[in-house]
Amino acid sequence: MLKTLLSHVKEYRKASLITPLCMILEVACEMVIPLLMASIVDKGINVEGGNMPHILLTGAAMIGVALLGLLFGLGGAKYGAKASTGFARNLRKAMYENIQTFSFSNIDKFSTSGLITRLTTDVTNIQNAYQMILRMCMRCPISLICAMVLSFTINAKLASIYLAATVFLGCILFLIVFIAMKYFSQAFPKYDELNESVQENVSAIRVVKAYVREDYENKKFKKASGNIYKIFKKAESVVAWNNPVMTLTVNCTLLLVSWFGAHMVVTNELSTGQLMSLLSYCMNILMSMMMLSMFFVMISMSLASMKRVVEVLDEKADITNPENPVTEVADGSIRFDHVSFAYNKDADRPVLRDINLEIKPGETIGILGGTGSAKSSLVNLISRLYDVTDGALYVGGVDVREYDIETLRNQVSVVLQNNVLFSGSILDNLRWGNKNATEEECRRACELACADEFIQKMPEGYQTHIEQGGTNVSGGQKQRLCIARALMKQPKILILDDSTSAVDTATDAKIRKAFREAIPGTTKLIIAQRVSSLMHSDRIIVMENGVIDGIGTHEELLAKNEIYRDVYESQQSGSGDFDEKGGM
User: Fold this and answer.
1) Which of residues 340 and 268 earns the better pLDDT score?
2) d(CA 427, CA 409)
3) Rounded distance, CA 334 to CA 435, Å?
Protein backbone atom coordinates (compact mmCIF):
# COMPACT_ATOMS: atom_id res chain seq x y z
CA MET A 1 0.00 0.00 0.00
CA LEU A 2 2.72 2.49 1.00
CA LYS A 3 4.76 1.61 -2.08
CA THR A 4 1.78 2.36 -4.31
CA LEU A 5 1.09 5.70 -2.61
CA LEU A 6 4.70 6.88 -2.42
CA SER A 7 5.24 6.15 -6.12
CA HIS A 8 3.07 9.23 -6.76
CA VAL A 9 5.31 11.66 -4.85
CA LYS A 10 7.31 11.93 -8.12
CA GLU A 11 8.58 15.49 -8.74
CA TYR A 12 8.01 16.42 -5.09
CA ARG A 13 10.74 14.10 -3.77
CA LYS A 14 13.11 17.05 -3.33
CA ALA A 15 10.58 18.99 -1.24
CA SER A 16 9.84 15.80 0.69
CA LEU A 17 13.53 15.48 1.62
CA ILE A 18 14.10 19.16 2.39
CA THR A 19 11.15 19.30 4.82
CA PRO A 20 12.45 16.76 7.38
CA LEU A 21 15.97 18.22 7.02
CA CYS A 22 14.61 21.67 7.95
CA MET A 23 12.80 20.08 10.89
CA ILE A 24 16.01 18.44 12.14
CA LEU A 25 17.88 21.75 11.94
CA GLU A 26 15.02 23.52 13.72
CA VAL A 27 15.21 20.95 16.54
CA ALA A 28 18.98 21.45 16.76
CA CYS A 29 18.43 25.17 17.26
CA GLU A 30 15.79 24.53 19.91
CA MET A 31 18.13 22.19 21.80
CA VAL A 32 20.91 24.79 21.90
CA ILE A 33 18.77 27.59 23.38
CA PRO A 34 18.29 26.00 26.88
CA LEU A 35 22.08 25.46 27.10
CA LEU A 36 22.72 29.10 26.24
CA MET A 37 20.06 30.16 28.73
CA ALA A 38 21.73 28.09 31.46
CA SER A 39 25.07 29.70 30.59
CA ILE A 40 23.56 33.17 31.02
CA VAL A 41 22.16 32.25 34.44
CA ASP A 42 25.20 30.40 35.75
CA LYS A 43 28.02 32.44 34.21
CA GLY A 44 26.41 35.79 33.69
CA ILE A 45 23.88 36.34 36.46
CA ASN A 46 24.89 34.09 39.36
CA VAL A 47 28.54 35.20 39.39
CA GLU A 48 29.62 37.91 41.78
CA GLY A 49 28.97 41.32 40.29
CA GLY A 50 27.48 39.75 37.19
CA ASN A 51 29.16 39.30 33.83
CA MET A 52 27.41 41.68 31.45
CA PRO A 53 29.64 40.98 28.41
CA HIS A 54 28.88 37.26 28.73
CA ILE A 55 25.16 37.99 29.12
CA LEU A 56 25.11 40.21 26.01
CA LEU A 57 27.21 37.88 23.90
CA THR A 58 25.27 34.77 24.88
CA GLY A 59 21.96 36.65 24.54
CA ALA A 60 22.93 37.71 21.01
CA ALA A 61 23.81 34.10 20.26
CA MET A 62 20.36 33.03 21.57
CA ILE A 63 18.65 35.56 19.29
CA GLY A 64 20.69 34.36 16.32
CA VAL A 65 19.94 30.71 17.02
CA ALA A 66 16.23 31.50 17.52
CA LEU A 67 16.06 33.37 14.20
CA LEU A 68 17.88 30.52 12.49
CA GLY A 69 15.40 28.06 14.01
CA LEU A 70 12.56 30.27 12.77
CA LEU A 71 13.94 30.21 9.23
CA PHE A 72 14.29 26.44 9.32
CA GLY A 73 10.74 26.16 10.68
CA LEU A 74 9.40 28.38 7.86
CA GLY A 75 11.36 26.33 5.32
CA GLY A 76 9.87 23.11 6.70
CA ALA A 77 6.36 24.59 6.54
CA LYS A 78 6.84 25.84 2.98
CA TYR A 79 8.35 22.68 1.53
CA GLY A 80 6.03 20.47 3.60
CA ALA A 81 2.98 22.24 2.14
CA LYS A 82 4.44 22.02 -1.37
CA ALA A 83 5.19 18.30 -1.04
CA SER A 84 1.86 17.34 0.52
CA THR A 85 -0.36 19.36 -1.84
CA GLY A 86 1.65 18.13 -4.83
CA PHE A 87 1.36 14.56 -3.60
CA ALA A 88 -2.42 15.00 -3.25
CA ARG A 89 -2.60 16.46 -6.76
CA ASN A 90 -0.72 13.49 -8.19
CA LEU A 91 -2.96 11.03 -6.34
CA ARG A 92 -6.12 12.67 -7.67
CA LYS A 93 -4.68 12.79 -11.18
CA ALA A 94 -3.57 9.14 -11.05
CA MET A 95 -6.95 8.01 -9.71
CA TYR A 96 -8.87 10.03 -12.28
CA GLU A 97 -6.73 8.77 -15.16
CA ASN A 98 -7.07 5.18 -13.95
CA ILE A 99 -10.85 5.56 -13.70
CA GLN A 100 -10.88 6.66 -17.37
CA THR A 101 -9.38 3.29 -18.33
CA PHE A 102 -12.03 1.29 -16.46
CA SER A 103 -14.40 -0.90 -18.36
CA PHE A 104 -18.05 -0.97 -17.36
CA SER A 105 -17.35 -4.01 -15.19
CA ASN A 106 -14.63 -2.09 -13.30
CA ILE A 107 -16.93 0.87 -12.80
CA ASP A 108 -19.65 -1.44 -11.46
CA LYS A 109 -17.37 -2.25 -8.48
CA PHE A 110 -17.38 1.36 -7.25
CA SER A 111 -20.35 3.63 -6.69
CA THR A 112 -20.17 7.15 -8.13
CA SER A 113 -20.41 8.63 -4.64
CA GLY A 114 -17.65 6.29 -3.45
CA LEU A 115 -15.29 7.47 -6.19
CA ILE A 116 -16.07 11.12 -5.39
CA THR A 117 -15.32 10.52 -1.69
CA ARG A 118 -12.02 8.88 -2.58
CA LEU A 119 -11.03 11.77 -4.86
CA THR A 120 -11.92 14.42 -2.26
CA THR A 121 -12.19 13.50 1.43
CA ASP A 122 -9.85 10.50 1.37
CA VAL A 123 -7.11 12.27 -0.60
CA THR A 124 -7.36 15.29 1.72
CA ASN A 125 -6.85 13.00 4.72
CA ILE A 126 -3.78 11.47 3.08
CA GLN A 127 -2.47 14.95 2.23
CA ASN A 128 -2.76 16.09 5.86
CA ALA A 129 -1.17 12.89 7.12
CA TYR A 130 1.71 13.17 4.64
CA GLN A 131 2.45 16.74 5.68
CA MET A 132 2.41 15.71 9.33
CA ILE A 133 4.72 12.77 8.56
CA LEU A 134 7.25 15.03 6.83
CA ARG A 135 7.20 17.62 9.60
CA MET A 136 6.38 15.78 12.82
CA CYS A 137 7.57 12.23 12.18
CA MET A 138 11.15 13.47 11.98
CA ARG A 139 10.93 16.45 14.32
CA CYS A 140 9.21 14.88 17.31
CA PRO A 141 11.35 11.73 17.77
CA ILE A 142 14.59 13.66 17.28
CA SER A 143 13.46 16.45 19.61
CA LEU A 144 12.42 13.88 22.21
CA ILE A 145 15.66 11.86 21.95
CA CYS A 146 17.93 14.92 21.97
CA ALA A 147 16.11 16.49 24.91
CA MET A 148 16.24 13.19 26.78
CA VAL A 149 19.98 12.70 26.13
CA LEU A 150 20.82 16.28 27.15
CA SER A 151 18.65 15.92 30.26
CA PHE A 152 20.55 12.78 31.30
CA THR A 153 23.80 14.64 30.58
CA ILE A 154 22.78 17.40 33.01
CA ASN A 155 21.31 15.18 35.74
CA ALA A 156 20.42 11.50 35.38
CA LYS A 157 18.19 11.38 38.49
CA LEU A 158 15.82 14.13 37.32
CA ALA A 159 15.94 12.89 33.72
CA SER A 160 14.66 9.52 34.97
CA ILE A 161 11.38 11.28 35.81
CA TYR A 162 11.09 12.32 32.13
CA LEU A 163 11.82 8.79 31.00
CA ALA A 164 9.12 7.35 33.26
CA ALA A 165 6.61 9.99 32.08
CA THR A 166 7.45 9.28 28.44
CA VAL A 167 6.95 5.53 28.85
CA PHE A 168 3.64 6.12 30.67
CA LEU A 169 2.39 8.52 28.00
CA GLY A 170 3.53 6.19 25.21
CA CYS A 171 1.45 3.33 26.60
CA ILE A 172 -1.63 5.52 27.07
CA LEU A 173 -1.33 7.04 23.59
CA PHE A 174 -0.92 3.61 21.99
CA LEU A 175 -4.13 2.46 23.69
CA ILE A 176 -6.02 5.60 22.63
CA VAL A 177 -4.89 5.33 19.00
CA PHE A 178 -5.61 1.58 18.86
CA ILE A 179 -9.20 2.09 19.99
CA ALA A 180 -9.78 5.22 17.87
CA MET A 181 -8.45 3.57 14.72
CA LYS A 182 -11.26 1.03 14.82
CA TYR A 183 -13.86 3.80 14.70
CA PHE A 184 -12.08 5.88 12.05
CA SER A 185 -11.90 2.87 9.73
CA GLN A 186 -15.71 2.64 9.96
CA ALA A 187 -16.31 6.36 9.51
CA PHE A 188 -15.00 7.16 6.05
CA PRO A 189 -17.02 4.56 4.12
CA LYS A 190 -20.08 6.28 5.62
CA TYR A 191 -19.15 9.38 3.62
CA ASP A 192 -20.08 7.36 0.52
CA GLU A 193 -23.66 7.11 1.77
CA LEU A 194 -23.73 10.83 2.57
CA ASN A 195 -22.37 11.82 -0.84
CA GLU A 196 -24.79 9.43 -2.52
CA SER A 197 -27.71 11.06 -0.73
CA VAL A 198 -26.57 14.55 -1.78
CA GLN A 199 -25.80 13.51 -5.35
CA GLU A 200 -29.16 11.83 -5.87
CA ASN A 201 -31.04 14.73 -4.32
CA VAL A 202 -29.31 17.42 -6.36
CA SER A 203 -29.34 15.56 -9.70
CA ALA A 204 -32.99 14.54 -9.27
CA ILE A 205 -34.23 17.69 -7.54
CA ARG A 206 -37.04 18.13 -10.08
CA VAL A 207 -38.37 14.64 -9.33
CA VAL A 208 -38.05 15.27 -5.59
CA LYS A 209 -40.11 18.43 -5.85
CA ALA A 210 -42.60 16.94 -8.29
CA TYR A 211 -43.37 14.14 -5.81
CA VAL A 212 -43.10 16.42 -2.75
CA ARG A 213 -40.46 14.16 -1.23
CA GLU A 214 -38.35 16.86 0.42
CA ASP A 215 -39.13 15.51 3.90
CA TYR A 216 -38.12 12.00 2.88
CA GLU A 217 -34.85 13.22 1.38
CA ASN A 218 -34.17 15.32 4.49
CA LYS A 219 -34.63 12.25 6.67
CA LYS A 220 -32.38 10.19 4.40
CA PHE A 221 -29.66 12.83 4.56
CA LYS A 222 -30.10 13.22 8.31
CA LYS A 223 -29.69 9.46 8.75
CA ALA A 224 -26.50 9.36 6.63
CA SER A 225 -25.12 12.41 8.39
CA GLY A 226 -26.14 10.97 11.76
CA ASN A 227 -24.23 7.75 11.10
CA ILE A 228 -21.04 9.73 10.54
CA TYR A 229 -21.75 11.84 13.63
CA LYS A 230 -22.20 8.77 15.84
CA ILE A 231 -18.99 7.08 14.68
CA PHE A 232 -16.90 10.25 14.94
CA LYS A 233 -18.42 10.97 18.34
CA LYS A 234 -17.21 7.60 19.58
CA ALA A 235 -13.78 8.12 18.00
CA GLU A 236 -13.40 11.65 19.35
CA SER A 237 -14.57 10.62 22.80
CA VAL A 238 -11.62 8.21 22.86
CA VAL A 239 -9.18 10.75 21.40
CA ALA A 240 -10.43 13.36 23.90
CA TRP A 241 -8.60 11.48 26.66
CA ASN A 242 -5.36 12.54 25.01
CA ASN A 243 -5.29 16.15 26.29
CA PRO A 244 -6.27 15.53 29.93
CA VAL A 245 -3.83 12.63 30.25
CA MET A 246 -1.13 14.76 28.62
CA THR A 247 -1.85 17.77 30.84
CA LEU A 248 -1.88 15.65 33.99
CA THR A 249 1.44 14.03 33.05
CA VAL A 250 3.06 17.38 32.18
CA ASN A 251 1.95 19.01 35.43
CA CYS A 252 3.01 16.04 37.54
CA THR A 253 6.38 15.90 35.79
CA LEU A 254 6.99 19.64 36.24
CA LEU A 255 5.99 19.40 39.89
CA LEU A 256 8.35 16.48 40.57
CA VAL A 257 11.25 18.05 38.69
CA SER A 258 10.73 21.41 40.43
CA TRP A 259 10.48 19.77 43.86
CA PHE A 260 13.50 17.50 43.56
CA GLY A 261 15.43 20.03 41.50
CA ALA A 262 14.96 22.77 44.11
CA HIS A 263 16.36 20.44 46.78
CA MET A 264 19.35 19.70 44.54
CA VAL A 265 19.98 23.42 43.98
CA VAL A 266 19.93 24.02 47.75
CA THR A 267 22.42 21.18 48.31
CA ASN A 268 24.58 22.39 45.40
CA GLU A 269 24.00 19.17 43.42
CA LEU A 270 22.49 21.24 40.60
CA SER A 271 22.87 24.84 39.47
CA THR A 272 19.94 27.17 38.90
CA GLY A 273 20.75 27.39 35.19
CA GLN A 274 20.83 23.62 34.87
CA LEU A 275 17.43 23.38 36.56
CA MET A 276 16.02 25.91 34.10
CA SER A 277 17.49 23.88 31.21
CA LEU A 278 15.93 20.70 32.58
CA LEU A 279 12.52 22.39 32.83
CA SER A 280 12.89 23.60 29.21
CA TYR A 281 13.82 20.10 28.08
CA CYS A 282 10.86 18.77 30.05
CA MET A 283 8.53 20.92 27.95
CA ASN A 284 10.34 19.81 24.76
CA ILE A 285 9.93 16.15 25.66
CA LEU A 286 6.29 16.39 26.62
CA MET A 287 5.37 18.65 23.69
CA SER A 288 7.03 16.12 21.39
CA MET A 289 4.89 13.41 22.96
CA MET A 290 1.78 15.54 22.43
CA MET A 291 2.62 16.13 18.77
CA LEU A 292 3.36 12.43 18.33
CA SER A 293 -0.06 11.63 19.74
CA MET A 294 -1.65 14.00 17.21
CA PHE A 295 0.46 12.35 14.51
CA PHE A 296 -0.75 8.86 15.43
CA VAL A 297 -4.37 10.03 15.57
CA MET A 298 -4.01 11.58 12.10
CA ILE A 299 -2.39 8.40 10.77
CA SER A 300 -5.17 6.27 12.25
CA MET A 301 -7.72 8.51 10.52
CA SER A 302 -5.91 8.35 7.20
CA LEU A 303 -5.19 4.60 7.14
CA ALA A 304 -8.76 3.83 6.08
CA SER A 305 -8.49 6.55 3.41
CA MET A 306 -5.19 5.12 2.19
CA LYS A 307 -6.74 1.69 1.69
CA ARG A 308 -9.69 3.16 -0.21
CA VAL A 309 -7.47 5.25 -2.51
CA VAL A 310 -5.13 2.32 -3.20
CA GLU A 311 -8.17 0.20 -4.14
CA VAL A 312 -8.82 2.58 -7.04
CA LEU A 313 -5.14 2.96 -7.98
CA ASP A 314 -4.58 -0.82 -7.98
CA GLU A 315 -7.74 -1.61 -9.91
CA LYS A 316 -6.71 -2.92 -13.31
CA ALA A 317 -8.93 -2.45 -16.32
CA ASP A 318 -10.59 -5.71 -17.32
CA ILE A 319 -10.50 -4.67 -20.95
CA THR A 320 -7.11 -3.80 -22.44
CA ASN A 321 -5.45 -3.72 -25.83
CA PRO A 322 -3.73 -6.90 -27.11
CA GLU A 323 0.00 -6.83 -27.87
CA ASN A 324 -0.39 -6.16 -31.60
CA PRO A 325 -3.88 -4.67 -31.98
CA VAL A 326 -5.74 -4.34 -35.25
CA THR A 327 -6.07 -0.63 -36.06
CA GLU A 328 -8.64 -0.69 -38.86
CA VAL A 329 -12.23 -1.88 -38.99
CA ALA A 330 -12.94 -3.25 -42.47
CA ASP A 331 -16.73 -2.90 -42.45
CA GLY A 332 -19.80 -2.93 -40.25
CA SER A 333 -20.45 -6.68 -40.33
CA ILE A 334 -21.18 -8.32 -36.95
CA ARG A 335 -21.09 -11.99 -36.00
CA PHE A 336 -21.95 -13.56 -32.65
CA ASP A 337 -20.44 -17.05 -32.42
CA HIS A 338 -21.94 -19.00 -29.49
CA VAL A 339 -21.68 -15.94 -27.28
CA SER A 340 -22.58 -16.11 -23.59
CA PHE A 341 -22.16 -13.27 -21.13
CA ALA A 342 -22.49 -12.72 -17.37
CA TYR A 343 -21.81 -9.50 -15.45
CA ASN A 344 -20.49 -11.61 -12.59
CA LYS A 345 -18.30 -14.53 -13.64
CA ASP A 346 -19.47 -16.48 -10.59
CA ALA A 347 -23.14 -16.04 -11.48
CA ASP A 348 -25.25 -19.20 -11.62
CA ARG A 349 -26.84 -18.18 -14.89
CA PRO A 350 -25.44 -15.95 -17.66
CA VAL A 351 -27.34 -12.89 -18.87
CA LEU A 352 -26.88 -13.93 -22.51
CA ARG A 353 -26.79 -17.60 -23.49
CA ASP A 354 -25.37 -19.15 -26.66
CA ILE A 355 -26.12 -16.26 -29.04
CA ASN A 356 -25.52 -17.03 -32.72
CA LEU A 357 -26.19 -14.13 -35.04
CA GLU A 358 -24.75 -12.71 -38.27
CA ILE A 359 -25.40 -9.14 -39.45
CA LYS A 360 -24.28 -7.85 -42.84
CA PRO A 361 -22.75 -4.40 -43.41
CA GLY A 362 -25.38 -1.70 -43.91
CA GLU A 363 -28.26 -3.77 -42.48
CA THR A 364 -30.81 -2.18 -40.22
CA ILE A 365 -31.56 -4.52 -37.33
CA GLY A 366 -34.38 -3.91 -34.87
CA ILE A 367 -34.21 -5.43 -31.40
CA LEU A 368 -37.35 -5.96 -29.33
CA GLY A 369 -37.84 -7.55 -25.94
CA GLY A 370 -39.21 -7.06 -22.48
CA THR A 371 -37.40 -5.47 -19.56
CA GLY A 372 -34.51 -7.70 -18.49
CA SER A 373 -34.39 -9.61 -21.76
CA ALA A 374 -30.69 -8.54 -22.19
CA LYS A 375 -31.15 -6.27 -25.22
CA SER A 376 -28.67 -3.68 -23.91
CA SER A 377 -26.25 -6.37 -22.80
CA LEU A 378 -26.22 -7.73 -26.35
CA VAL A 379 -25.26 -4.43 -28.02
CA ASN A 380 -22.81 -3.40 -25.26
CA LEU A 381 -20.59 -6.33 -26.27
CA ILE A 382 -20.19 -4.98 -29.82
CA SER A 383 -18.13 -1.92 -28.81
CA ARG A 384 -16.45 -4.02 -26.13
CA LEU A 385 -17.88 -2.10 -23.21
CA TYR A 386 -17.94 -5.59 -21.70
CA ASP A 387 -16.11 -8.71 -22.83
CA VAL A 388 -17.93 -11.91 -23.73
CA THR A 389 -17.74 -14.65 -21.12
CA ASP A 390 -17.82 -17.50 -23.66
CA GLY A 391 -17.70 -17.66 -27.41
CA ALA A 392 -16.47 -14.91 -29.73
CA LEU A 393 -17.82 -11.70 -31.24
CA TYR A 394 -16.55 -10.50 -34.60
CA VAL A 395 -16.77 -7.00 -36.09
CA GLY A 396 -15.53 -6.52 -39.63
CA GLY A 397 -14.45 -10.17 -39.60
CA VAL A 398 -12.08 -9.67 -36.64
CA ASP A 399 -12.59 -10.73 -33.02
CA VAL A 400 -13.28 -7.52 -31.06
CA ARG A 401 -10.63 -8.56 -28.51
CA GLU A 402 -7.98 -8.20 -31.22
CA TYR A 403 -8.80 -4.57 -32.00
CA ASP A 404 -7.23 -1.45 -30.61
CA ILE A 405 -10.01 -0.34 -28.25
CA GLU A 406 -10.00 3.27 -29.46
CA THR A 407 -10.16 2.17 -33.09
CA LEU A 408 -13.11 -0.14 -32.42
CA ARG A 409 -15.09 2.38 -30.40
CA ASN A 410 -14.52 5.13 -32.96
CA GLN A 411 -16.20 2.91 -35.54
CA VAL A 412 -19.05 1.75 -33.26
CA SER A 413 -21.16 4.72 -32.19
CA VAL A 414 -23.47 4.03 -29.26
CA VAL A 415 -26.34 6.13 -28.00
CA LEU A 416 -26.98 4.62 -24.58
CA GLN A 417 -30.25 4.36 -22.71
CA ASN A 418 -29.24 7.07 -20.25
CA ASN A 419 -28.54 10.07 -22.46
CA VAL A 420 -25.95 12.43 -21.02
CA LEU A 421 -25.11 15.95 -22.15
CA PHE A 422 -22.27 17.95 -20.66
CA SER A 423 -22.17 21.57 -19.61
CA GLY A 424 -21.10 23.75 -22.53
CA SER A 425 -22.56 24.87 -25.84
CA ILE A 426 -24.48 22.62 -28.21
CA LEU A 427 -21.46 22.66 -30.53
CA ASP A 428 -19.19 21.57 -27.67
CA ASN A 429 -21.44 18.58 -27.04
CA LEU A 430 -21.65 17.66 -30.72
CA ARG A 431 -17.87 17.79 -31.05
CA TRP A 432 -17.56 14.95 -28.55
CA GLY A 433 -18.22 12.86 -31.67
CA ASN A 434 -15.54 14.69 -33.69
CA LYS A 435 -13.44 17.33 -31.95
CA ASN A 436 -12.36 18.86 -35.30
CA ALA A 437 -15.83 19.07 -36.83
CA THR A 438 -16.91 22.30 -38.48
CA GLU A 439 -20.18 23.99 -37.62
CA GLU A 440 -21.55 22.94 -41.02
CA GLU A 441 -20.76 19.26 -40.27
CA CYS A 442 -22.47 19.60 -36.90
CA ARG A 443 -25.48 21.15 -38.56
CA ARG A 444 -25.67 18.29 -41.07
CA ALA A 445 -25.64 15.67 -38.29
CA CYS A 446 -28.37 17.59 -36.44
CA GLU A 447 -30.50 17.67 -39.59
CA LEU A 448 -30.27 13.88 -39.84
CA ALA A 449 -31.23 13.56 -36.16
CA CYS A 450 -34.07 16.09 -36.56
CA ALA A 451 -32.38 18.32 -33.98
CA ASP A 452 -31.64 21.29 -36.25
CA GLU A 453 -35.28 22.37 -36.27
CA PHE A 454 -35.41 23.10 -32.52
CA ILE A 455 -31.81 24.38 -32.31
CA GLN A 456 -32.58 27.07 -34.89
CA LYS A 457 -35.44 28.31 -32.73
CA MET A 458 -33.13 28.89 -29.75
CA PRO A 459 -31.93 32.51 -29.31
CA GLU A 460 -28.24 31.57 -29.59
CA GLY A 461 -28.66 28.63 -31.96
CA TYR A 462 -25.72 26.24 -31.86
CA GLN A 463 -23.98 28.41 -29.27
CA THR A 464 -26.82 27.82 -26.79
CA HIS A 465 -25.42 26.78 -23.42
CA ILE A 466 -26.40 23.33 -22.17
CA GLU A 467 -26.61 22.96 -18.41
CA GLN A 468 -24.94 20.00 -16.71
CA GLY A 469 -26.88 16.85 -17.56
CA GLY A 470 -28.89 18.72 -20.21
CA THR A 471 -31.46 19.95 -17.70
CA ASN A 472 -32.46 22.94 -19.88
CA VAL A 473 -33.64 20.81 -22.83
CA SER A 474 -36.49 18.31 -23.03
CA GLY A 475 -36.05 14.55 -23.03
CA GLY A 476 -36.75 14.29 -26.75
CA GLN A 477 -34.37 17.15 -27.57
CA LYS A 478 -31.68 15.54 -25.46
CA GLN A 479 -32.11 12.23 -27.31
CA ARG A 480 -31.85 13.90 -30.71
CA LEU A 481 -28.70 15.79 -29.71
CA CYS A 482 -27.15 12.52 -28.51
CA ILE A 483 -28.03 10.84 -31.82
CA ALA A 484 -26.46 13.76 -33.73
CA ARG A 485 -23.35 13.48 -31.55
CA ALA A 486 -23.08 9.76 -32.40
CA LEU A 487 -23.45 10.52 -36.13
CA MET A 488 -20.53 12.98 -35.94
CA LYS A 489 -18.18 9.98 -35.66
CA GLN A 490 -19.31 8.71 -39.08
CA PRO A 491 -19.28 5.18 -37.68
CA LYS A 492 -19.48 1.88 -39.52
CA ILE A 493 -21.92 0.66 -36.84
CA LEU A 494 -24.57 2.81 -35.15
CA ILE A 495 -26.37 1.50 -32.06
CA LEU A 496 -29.47 3.26 -30.70
CA ASP A 497 -30.38 1.76 -27.34
CA ASP A 498 -33.98 2.87 -26.86
CA SER A 499 -32.78 6.33 -27.90
CA THR A 500 -36.00 7.61 -29.45
CA SER A 501 -38.38 6.70 -26.63
CA ALA A 502 -39.02 10.39 -25.81
CA VAL A 503 -39.46 11.34 -29.47
CA ASP A 504 -42.90 11.44 -31.11
CA THR A 505 -43.56 8.81 -33.78
CA ALA A 506 -43.54 11.31 -36.66
CA THR A 507 -40.05 12.55 -35.73
CA ASP A 508 -38.97 8.95 -35.09
CA ALA A 509 -40.03 8.07 -38.61
CA LYS A 510 -38.15 11.06 -40.08
CA ILE A 511 -34.97 9.99 -38.26
CA ARG A 512 -35.26 6.43 -39.58
CA LYS A 513 -35.85 7.72 -43.11
CA ALA A 514 -32.80 10.01 -42.86
CA PHE A 515 -30.69 7.07 -41.71
CA ARG A 516 -31.72 4.97 -44.71
CA GLU A 517 -31.00 7.71 -47.21
CA ALA A 518 -27.90 9.40 -45.72
CA ILE A 519 -25.95 6.50 -44.16
CA PRO A 520 -26.96 3.40 -46.13
CA GLY A 521 -23.56 1.76 -45.63
CA THR A 522 -23.69 2.05 -41.84
CA THR A 523 -24.94 -0.97 -39.93
CA LYS A 524 -27.75 0.18 -37.65
CA LEU A 525 -28.96 -1.63 -34.55
CA ILE A 526 -32.08 -0.06 -33.05
CA ILE A 527 -33.51 -1.13 -29.70
CA ALA A 528 -37.05 0.10 -29.19
CA GLN A 529 -40.25 -0.74 -27.39
CA ARG A 530 -42.49 0.53 -30.21
CA VAL A 531 -43.08 -1.92 -33.04
CA SER A 532 -43.61 1.06 -35.37
CA SER A 533 -39.97 2.04 -34.79
CA LEU A 534 -38.74 -1.38 -35.89
CA MET A 535 -41.21 -2.76 -38.40
CA HIS A 536 -39.38 -1.35 -41.43
CA SER A 537 -36.02 -2.81 -40.37
CA ASP A 538 -34.33 -5.36 -42.62
CA ARG A 539 -34.65 -7.87 -39.77
CA ILE A 540 -35.99 -7.78 -36.23
CA ILE A 541 -34.56 -9.74 -33.32
CA VAL A 542 -36.89 -10.74 -30.50
CA MET A 543 -35.10 -11.26 -27.17
CA GLU A 544 -36.47 -13.23 -24.23
CA ASN A 545 -34.57 -14.14 -21.04
CA GLY A 546 -31.13 -13.73 -22.61
CA VAL A 547 -31.75 -15.78 -25.76
CA ILE A 548 -32.97 -14.98 -29.26
CA ASP A 549 -36.58 -16.07 -29.37
CA GLY A 550 -37.09 -15.13 -32.99
CA ILE A 551 -35.53 -13.28 -35.91
CA GLY A 552 -37.01 -12.15 -39.21
CA THR A 553 -38.89 -9.38 -40.98
CA HIS A 554 -42.00 -7.77 -39.52
CA GLU A 555 -44.29 -9.98 -41.58
CA GLU A 556 -42.35 -13.16 -40.77
CA LEU A 557 -42.44 -12.50 -37.03
CA LEU A 558 -46.13 -11.65 -37.10
CA ALA A 559 -46.76 -15.03 -38.66
CA LYS A 560 -44.35 -17.13 -36.59
CA ASN A 561 -43.38 -15.42 -33.33
CA GLU A 562 -45.92 -15.30 -30.51
CA ILE A 563 -44.07 -12.68 -28.42
CA TYR A 564 -43.75 -10.26 -31.33
CA ARG A 565 -47.37 -10.79 -32.36
CA ASP A 566 -48.62 -10.15 -28.81
CA VAL A 567 -46.60 -6.92 -28.54
CA TYR A 568 -47.80 -5.73 -31.95
CA GLU A 569 -51.44 -6.49 -31.24
CA SER A 570 -51.37 -4.90 -27.79
CA GLN A 571 -49.91 -1.70 -29.27
CA GLN A 572 -52.39 -1.69 -32.13
CA SER A 573 -55.35 -2.22 -29.84
CA GLY A 574 -54.36 0.83 -27.76
CA SER A 575 -54.36 4.41 -28.89
CA GLY A 576 -51.80 3.48 -31.53
CA ASP A 577 -49.11 5.58 -33.14
CA PHE A 578 -50.58 8.86 -34.33
CA ASP A 579 -48.37 8.96 -37.42
CA GLU A 580 -47.67 5.36 -38.25
CA LYS A 581 -46.50 6.19 -41.75
CA GLY A 582 -44.99 9.57 -41.04
CA GLY A 583 -41.92 10.20 -43.08
CA MET A 584 -41.92 6.69 -44.54
Assistant:
1) 340
2) 21
3) 27
